[in-house]
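Supplementary Methods S3. Input chains for the assembly prediction are listed below.
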Amino acid sequence: MGALDAGCFEEELENGVGLEEDVAEIGWESGMTDSESESARAIEDAVRVLLQGLGEDPEREGLRRTPHRVAKAFREGTRGYKQKVKDIVQGALFPEAGLETGTGHAGGAGGLVVVRNINLFSYCESCLLPFSIQCHVGYVPSGRRVVGLSKLSRVADVFSKRLQDPQRLANEICSALHNSIKPAGVAVALHCWHIQFPEALPCNSNSTYPSKLDMQGWIQVLVSSSSGVLKEEKSSLWDDFLALLKLKSINIERGDTNLYSASSWCPSRVLETSLCNGHCARSPKNGKTSKTGVTHASMMAAVASILHSLGEDPSRKELVRTPHHYVQWLMNSRSSNLDLRLNGLSKANSCNVVDGNFTCLNEIQSVLNIPFCSQCEHHLLPFHGVVHIGYLDKQEGKCIERSVLQSVVHSFACKLQVQERLTRQIAEAVYSIFNIGVIVVVEAHHLCMISRGIEKVGSNTATIAVLGQFSTDAKAKGLFLQTIADNNASEG
Amino acid sequence: MGALDAGCFEEELENGVGLEEDVAEIGWESGMTDSESESARAIEDAVRVLLQGLGEDPEREGLRRTPHRVAKAFREGTRGYKQKVKDIVQGALFPEAGLETGTGHAGGAGGLVVVRNINLFSYCESCLLPFSIQCHVGYVPSGRRVVGLSKLSRVADVFSKRLQDPQRLANEICSALHNSIKPAGVAVALHCWHIQFPEALPCNSNSTYPSKLDMQGWIQVLVSSSSGVLKEEKSSLWDDFLALLKLKSINIERGDTNLYSASSWCPSRVLETSLCNGHCARSPKNGKTSKTGVTHASMMAAVASILHSLGEDPSRKELVRTPHHYVQWLMNSRSSNLDLRLNGLSKANSCNVVDGNFTCLNEIQSVLNIPFCSQCEHHLLPFHGVVHIGYLDKQEGKCIERSVLQSVVHSFACKLQVQERLTRQIAEAVYSIFNIGVIVVVEAHHLCMISRGIEKVGSNTATIAVLGQFSTDAKAKGLFLQTIADNNASEG
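Predicted structure tokens for the full assembly:
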């Protein structure tokens, strides 16, 4: 079972990749004040506690600079606390004549101005995970002045870069724009997506977890805020705002945005309720000590210290339970003994199945679109997507049950990971347990790549690992890749 | 014809919008060295010359800080000259075990690692306009080390933030990744889009200019570069790379990327050839003086000085004709006498037409999707999209020819603009010439919003202006907006 012993692959490598100081990552510190440096160090210390609480060694190569990266991501993600809307808008107000008095709208250039589809990320104040936002902003100019269009995005960005709740974010963007531009009215609509917590889902294998790469299965809410002549309740201009969104296939109906209930947004809160009812409890109780001697309580204290270092008040009502929620999320990635989890898997699980998910393609058996969610060990941020597994069936008609492969994927995903290692470990496990040639393709979105730093929304990573016959048979490999492509195409 | 006198709307406004110093925009200068400040000032001076060459007053409110913004955009857009790949990659190489020797691929974690759909912008070295890039990068790990996934985007970004040509960009990304990661091989595929020059299009009204908001009608090329085991010519791994792209519906066939001819990429070069043949010449000859006393030659010299200030060598082969091309582009926005251009328009143009582009909806006549390309006066960057015009037909069956409305749109688009003013001016022109109630909706992508600063790719701006009956009849306005939505939906 050597292939299942994850540890043996993580030894110090003799050929010594030179892990020199990360100049690019360190660069951001150069301009920091003493108190900022102190805050950054406090966050790094707290992250080390969290890593230990997960049963990890914070000094192993992959994790050594994780505290630094996480601190940087948190500070970048909350930079909005230090930005002033006045500074952004003031220089970008331009005099612009309006339509002739009495015949047209408003005192600005014409009527409504709407910027649609601004992609943003914010941090959920309830669980500290990033959530994705599609932001639409409109205003009706007044006083013969318009604002530079990019400033609408910039102001929205300032408030998204704070610990937020969707409705408050909409309200803050709306009132900031209203106060700084002094228009006849402002309209803001936000479509927000929050990643689901794995343990909030049904435990059986036919889970509702997203089976595609996009955000199906994520929790969505639609919120809005408006002021002045755009006030939703009374205004035909609000209808115009919605009509202009509709031109870009953004379909929001009047009243849609009133359906949001703050308490049902973040899955950590929903989960907390169900955990109180004794359902599916997995997180350790306060006082319980991890194998590295770090208690749950000290992990909670570490998160509170992060909140404090970000300039937040951990005793603010909305933040009181945040340390609990964040630790709860992290504990999904607790280091555990894989041998134990995989113990039940053996060739006994290889049996005849009648399953629509199988595609018989000569000898290649394909199990496609196994959903997963894992945690990037470099940034402590989720990456999620699907795993496709192909294997060469030696005995015709003998197949591995989909649920077995789901268990294998789940076992390796539920820990701090990198996608490359996850791919390899799944391939090696299947190869070792079933003694068959195997190909594994993992497709994933990384929140670390889309929510911070370079913010490449839409980027997506694919990795591939092949063992046994697939590594020498380019044709078999090609056929399997084509099978995935055909399947994706047929699912649209 | 007061409504056609653009000048009367651009007077100094008495209610004085406080155009205080733009703190946010100035902020970037604080960390600049003396020589950087000098370069920035040189670019600003050059932009002032260009504005004068366009017949504009660089001191009018809308333009006063344009030199500053353009200088900043150019410096941001070429920041890659100062970035070192080594700094980015070095701290992000992680030891990662490979598949068991002899049974799998490569010495890294598994096989191929591919990041798909990285959105980038670069500046065309031939005409200084930004072009859009969809970048796909792959590599096969070696020496038991993998690179942090976000570094693949970051390295691609370094080289895109320079004056570029698609093929060179692909080659530079490929060789930088190969040298810094030292993998078994690297694959890079770039899909690039370049905006079309208006005068390169047929002069008649049925132009092939993009009739939708996306980049239909833009010039596209597909280029690639590869190294080591991924070398395109010999490698089945190159096929795997293309197969992994196909999973995201990125369909590139082997050989597709060899079709690119550098000489046919930038429309400025194509145009230059056709201009040499005496076709459709619009740009003034050297020595010709604009109404503000600035010669074409001094505009060219100003652009050469910008190139120099960006650290480029204006005498480098690929840059020799760039000043000519950029000035040629800018001259599309030359300030001109609108009265002259619109002289031919009158009620005589209102006549019976049988035209599939008309939708008769009770009294409202709709002319949808009139394409346009204009120039943002704040950043000297294109914004482009479509104009929808609705009017209330007083005499049943009497319609305004589509080509007449196209001329109106074209007249106001061909100058330095802001979208709000463009919308108002079109509405006022139609209202004034034809004496009818009118509604104008403009939908546009702004390259200033997606290629610089906050880089909100996908964001899109809609503006609306109403005159006459439409300003009091919310129902008529709603019907027209619904007509556009229905039309967009039916066109997919």
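Chain B touches chain A through 113 residues (CB under 8 Å). Residues 1-28, 201-213, 278-286, 350-361 of chain B have pLDDT under 50 and may be disordered.
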